[in-house]
Amino acid sequence: MKKMLLFLQLVMLAVTMPVAMGQAVRIKDLANLRGDRTNSLIGFGLVVGLNQTGDSPESLTTNKAMVTLLSRLGMTPDNPQVATQSAAAVIVTAELPAFANIGDRIDVRLSTVADATSLAGGTLLMTHLRAGDGEVYVVAEGAIVVGQASGEGARILTVARIADGGTIEKEFAPALVKNNAIDLNLRQPDFTTSARVSHTINQHFRMFIAKSVNAAHVTVQVPDEYQTKLTSFIAEIEGLTVEPDQKAIVIVNERTGTVVMGGDVKISDVVVSHNGLSIEVGSGKNAKKESVVPVQGTTIADLVKSLNQMGVKPEDLVSILQSLHASGALKADIKLL
């Protein structure tokens, strides 16, 4: 009896759910899984071996760093000013991927903090990279190549990357399940799309496990049979396709005359007069007038097609769209760049 009731509920849900008119997109491309994110790391390091392009001897930061390094290596400098232009103090940053394993390697980025002019040809000494919790997750070191080894052809010489320069020393495994549920966060919040995502998931699994909380959040309960197969459950959800809905918007770049818009953006009945050209969109009541050129259809695509056939310049097209938006005839938001 319960199964029959559940089946009827699913049938009613499928009947009452509006059908989307658009291109189907995977849920993987529409939403992020809560917890599945990168973690920012940062550390302070020293680059040595520079060809007189490092920090000047007057740099307090580099001198203190060099004294500390030499002390750890068993040397006690008599003079606190030990830095030369062959060394530079740097800030090292990296992005630690979720579910990274110990021993994996990631890229690291170096940026000078003093007056060094180039990091080309230097070597980063062992540097600990920490996360917001203060724990060390990555150890970075390695040779630096900026453009050519001499730095030729590179525009910015005080910032560099070391490919695979960081070795993961501690794993980052975020918790994906909270209260026996996973959360999907839409990259572009929309109530209609959120409802369609939950409907698609419920229809696929034939049970009410997904709930649209708001325009950007869908929560999905993990069924009992998937408690030990969480990876398969998430992969199954990510592979489902949904036809996303989006708000009508027209993007206009006034400097270049570029216009980006959806072809189905609607326009009310209106007559446009611009630079001696009169155009009517809609009912065609004024089409009998010789000075008025009728446009078949009531969408932006129809208008733009007609204007292009008439040889209207891009800057004039931008002006016409702005005027349509100001009059309220353009049924979309307009965004100026």
SSE layout:
Blueprint: H1 2-16, E1 25-26, H2 27-30, E2 31-33, E3 39-48, H3 60-72, E4 87-96, E5 105-112, E6 123-130, E7 136-143, E8 159-168, E9 181-186, H4 191-205, E10 210-214, E11 217-221, H5 230-238, E12 241-242, E13 249-253, E14 258-261, E15 270-274, E16 277-281, E17 292-295, H6 300-309, H7 314-327, E18 333-336
Parallel strand pairs: 13-18, 16-17
Antiparallel strand pairs: 1-12, 2-9, 3-4, 3-6, 4-5, 5-8, 6-7, 7-8, 9-11, 10-11, 13-14, 15-16
Descriptive terms for the model:
337 residues, alpha+beta, Aspartate Aminotransferase, domain 1, 3 domains, 6-stranded antiparallel barrel, 7 helices, 24% helix, disordered N terminus
Task: Give a quick summary of the entry.
The chain is of the alpha+beta class and 337 residues long. The chain is 24% helix and 31% strand.
Describe the structure.
With 337 residues, the protein is α+β, with helices and mostly antiparallel strands. The protein has seven helices and 18 strands. The strands form five sheets. The chain has a six-stranded antiparallel β-barrel. The longest helix is centred in the first third of the chain and has 15 residues. The two termini are 59 Å apart. The N terminus is likely disordered.
Alpha plus pi helix count: 7
Spatial order of the strands forming the largest sheet: 3-4-5-8-7-6
The helix content, as a percent range, equals 10-25%
The number of distinct structural domains comes to: 3
Low-confidence stretches: 1-21, 286-291
Q: How many angstroms separate the termini?
A: 59 Å
Give, in order, the helices and strands.
HEHEEHEEEEEEHEEHEEEEEEHHE
Structural class: alpha+beta
Radius of gyration: 30 Å
Approximate shape:
flat
The main pleated sheet reads as: 6 strands, antiparallel, barrel
% residues in beta strands: 25-35%
The number of E-state strands comes to 18
